[in-house]
């Protein structure tokens, strides 16, 4: 007798994939998550790992543990390389895997807009290995600055540049400024702190362009108070690993350029090219079904649900991925029971960004606030959304410790950073 249970394969154990699989618990389907990592990453706190504020383990959670006891769930660590839509089959690094329904929840990857020299020389921060690379590099450069042979070398090692004035760029620049103010003084007494410079470079006229004008202005004010030099309406022209060339002839000599200037969908080869739209995202209908297919869906950052209300798709944020995962679980079950599906409706919970101790900005619909209360709100929301009680506790204890001690605990070069060979410039780790 033919097995009537359908197999739903989800590629990606991020915010969307995890939520979808959870909502399929105790249903009459088999669920398989495939991910190249065996853990879920809480990306909003990656910058704290990169700047020595949190240990990497506290923002990662083993995917198998999330689904402990879920009988219809399986997980495999593998990278999906290609979709064979004719055969309903995935080509992966551990062999072929067949599906009845496929959900692509692969998130996004850093976008260097085709500038391979910048891609090779600048540091992305989209995954835990990348954040750890960055932590090592920042610390290695500080060590190297102490033994620099020329003033030019020393200046480049002590100039830290963050490119991209969205929440990640603002938060990273703020965290490096705090590192300089509270930590370097004690750890590197020989360093002349006046020589340590932090720059934030943004192409558009304002920081946090998706937020209110109050949040934009206040975040800039906070950063400048903390000693960050902010350049807006300034585009990066080139970066050869030593000199960052900006528009209007500006140049910054820097060994550390952190790239948070854009993302693109982490698509998998094999879909009809017509289904791929702006930003390398996959075009889906209001039920997250990929255009041109009946049994392939996409959710989260990689999906572009283009409607009159959302001409650019939904924002690439965790709540959009989670809500799409939740809704798609209901729709997949409805499809299997020949019931009508429901159109996805995004509930915008607002946006927030933290700049540093006691300094954050929050927009919740028409309610906007900045400063200490916003900072507590930011911490509360991030603690609550972290996966796992242990992680919540570890992060909470770390934050309380840092608040009172002015210290950042994990300044370790455990795996020294080495630049990749030129042939292998892919940053997707
Ligand atoms: C530094 C940073 C800060 C952020 N801060 C915030 C914030 O404060 N608030 C907010 O709401 N959002 C924030 N975001 C955005 C948020 O993290 C994303 O919107 C969210 O993670 C998208 O969820 P997702 O499920 O689509 O993908 P992800 O959570 O990115 O998960 C994708 C998963 O797919 C896996 N994968 C990808 N390709 C393959 C493949 N070919 N084979 C196997 N596995 C694959 C990856 O390993 C990953 O586990 C931030 C993002 C970054 C990078």
**By CATH's scheme, which homologous superfamily of the largest domain applies?**
FAD/NAD(P)-binding domain
Q: Please, what is the average pLDDT?
A: 94
What's the CATH architecture of the largest domain?
3-Layer(bba) Sandwich
- In the predicted model, the low-confidence regions spanning at least 5 consecutive residues are none
Q: Number of helical segments?
A: 11
What's the count of strands? 25
Rounded to the nearest angstrom, the radius of gyration is 22 Å
Please name the CATH topology of the largest domain: FAD/NAD(P)-binding domain
Ions, cofactors and other ligands present here are: flavin-adenine dinucleotide
How much strand?
15-25%
Shape: globular
Number of domains: 2
Instruction: Give a quick account of the main beta sheet: strands, pairing sense, barrel closure.
Output: 5 strands, parallel
Helix content: 25-40%
Level-1 CATH class name of the largest domain: Alpha Beta
User: What is the SS-derived class?
Assistant: alpha/beta
Distance between the termini: 43 Å
Multimeric state of these chains? single chain
Q: What is the strand arrangement across the widest sheet?
A: 5-2-1-9-21
Enzyme class: oxidoreductase
Family: Belongs to the NADH dehydrogenase family.
Pfam family, one: Pyr_redox_2
Domain External alternative NADH-ubiquinone oxidoreductase-like C-terminal: 349-403
